[in-house]
Amino acid sequence: MTTPIPRVAEVPAARERARAIPEAAVARLAVYLRVLSGIQEQGVGTVSSEELAVAAGVNSAKLRKDLSYIGSYGTRGVGYEVVVLIEEIERILGLTRKHSVAVVGIGNLGHALANYGGFPGRGFPVTCLFDVDPDLLGVPVGGLPVEHIDDIPRICAEREVSIGVIATPPPAAQIVCDRLVEAGVACILNFAPVVLQVPDHVEVRKVDLAVELQVLSFHVARRADSALEATRLAAAHQHVNGVSSTVSGNGVNGMVVS
Known about the structure:
Helix content: 40-55%
Oligomer: single chain
Structural class: alpha/beta
Number of strands: 9
Largest sheet: 7 strands, mixed
């Protein structure tokens, strides 16, 4: 994922563009990057906006708008150069910089995150793990020994951790967050179902799996209601057609009209 360091004159312009990008568009840029990486692995050199939009699950107009935020407009009749577009998105997303990730809370979720092989390949190597369970301390998980949370400030500072992942039970989340902030960690991914109190310079992204399931439940219920309503309307329509047919065949009030 290493790319050429941008020229000095390009850095301020890139920062200005990054500040102007809506958060929803940033999330889609990450999706485009994933799709483009797959296209690059297939040896494809260029991709049209329509092809990329279909692969990313968005419409082409929205994709072109998103890419315009990073100053990439493609070439009419040719499309986008895959390598160039990957470099532009990586630069805007900050992926040309070195990242180091700490995972705190080595339960089932923490184990899964520590062992996930996709993070290093995308520029997010997990470099330290923390917990308070005596049975876990010193035990390697994903090749790293589990450290005590009291050592968060020291170890995170030493290893220049830029992103902290909190996967602890709710009561411990704020304490862990405070220690990550003390270590200079300014970006936190929080899986604990609590609202963290952080200084203004710290960015927190909350991932609540229960909320996501509830949102999916809403969509399931809405589709079920729509199917039920469609069935009801079809039955009503069939009933009206049946009554109409009876009237037409037998006349009014059962008398055959001559």
